[in-house]
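Recall that a protein's primary structure is simply its ordered list of amino acids. Everything else, from secondary elements to tertiary packing, is in principle encoded there. The following example makes that idea concrete.
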Amino acid sequence: MIASVAAALRDRLRWRLVAATATPMDAGRAVDAGVLDRYLRGLVADGADALAVCAHTGRGPYLDAETRDLVTRHAVDTGVPVIVGVGGRPGEHTDDVAAQAARAAAHGAAGVLVFPVDGDAVAHHDAVWRAAGLPMLAFDLYTRPYPASALPALLAHPGVAGIKVARLHDALACQAALAAAHRADRLAVTGEDRMFGPSLMWGAQSALVGIAAAAVPVTAAVLRAYADGRHDDFVAASARLDRLAEVTFTDPMEGYVQRMLWIAAAEGRVPATHAGDPYGPALPDGDRDRVLDVAGYR
């Protein structure tokens, strides 16, 4: 049985694009409230129906509590539903994650995206639910995937509104997780930046993706065309998105955050002084030029 607040979020996000936002910061890892606010509002103006903050793209596991609060408050102020990523830190305890969720609730978040955990995922989600009372999106992430056998019990939790599936290149696992969401009457959310169009055809009914941290209209066009049944437009839009994903979500994969920030800076969403990812790997020579060429900014 799904809780009423979880059912409401499930229905609110169906066929909606949730932009997994970056967290623009300067070389000293400080977040400027004005830069942040303009960035978040620009994503909404360009087609993001909701925002996911403090998730993987936003480097949530690295942010201190005060910065997480700042980002959450500014996202909520945009007026769209806000999903806050909780967890993801090595060695963390469930109590820590539950406390993050409670803070997100206090600042007006609509729900939380719960990073995957080893061990008892149901108990972990239940603790988050009891602490915050916010509907949850489970997270089937390629670096820490849930076994298929664990999904039915997790999706049966009353506070789970849906599951974000981000298996990167495992099409079979993606299909299985999306099907499990449908069987449980939960929202099937694609997080598949490299399998975006196919994941919609496999049953995803919403999207929460880092590729919408910039170039939002490119991603939105694919979801809108599919939802509206405009299949010729869907094919063309998918091809455009795939070309962008090919140069942004590629080895080293953790570099995608920096690549999306390069695009955000080229679009004027953030100043160059706040377009670096201090937590990402070194990227190959010429990477920035390749990304901006495909994105249409060179």
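The chain has one domain: 4-228. The CA atoms of residues 25 and 31 lie 5 Å apart.
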